[in-house]
Amino acid sequence: MNNKHFELTNETITVDKHTLHRIKATRDIPRQNVKKGDLGGFVESYDNLNDDAWVADNACVYEDAKVFGDARVCVRAKVYGSAHVYDFARVYASTYIHGNAKVFGNARVSGYTQVYGYARIYDFVF
Fold first, then answer.
1. How many CB atoms lie within 10 A of CB 65?
2. DSSP of 28-42
3. Is 114 helix (H, G, I), strand (E, B) or coil?
4. Helix, strand, coil % in the chain, rounded to nearest 5
5. What pTM was computed for the model?
6. 3-state secondary structure of 112
7. Tens digits of residue pLDDT in 48-103
8. Contacts of 19 (CB under 8 A, 6+ apart)
């Protein structure tokens, strides 16, 4: 049984030879301003997204990447490889987070940015 806050829809795209599914909220997520039934971005599997985290717009999360806590990935951002985005972090625009990179705390990453390797981007966690 799926106890996640989202389900995978039949809408798919192919990114770097990976099939990603658009997500749909199965319950309200107030911290993310998401209502039950709202469509989100794209993930490869249920393992990519946990807790109350959300992927929005045309953002993509795939491979072994994880978005969790209250994090949000949106617009055209990509999170892949073994990268993690968590806590209250926000990843926007055309940002790529990959490799073993971590974005956490209250960090904000946007623009045409790449965070990769073993990089850590963070800010104070309340």
1. 25
2. -BGGGTB-TT-EEEE
3. strand
4. 5, 40, 55
5. 0.95
6. coil
7. 999 999 999 999 999 999 999 999 999 999 999 999 999 999 999 999 999 999 99
8. 12, 13, 44
Going through the chain in order, the beta strands assigned E by DSSP cover 6-15, 18-25, 39-43, 54-55, 60-61, 66-67, 72-73, 78-79, 84-85, 90-91, 96-97, 102-104, 108-109, 114-115, 120-122
Q: Which two tokens stand for residue 60?
A: 């993509």
> What tokens does 9 get?
């829809």
Which residue shows structure tokens 């625009």? Answer: 93
Give the position of tokens 């795209």. Answer: 13
Location of structure tokens 């794209």:
42
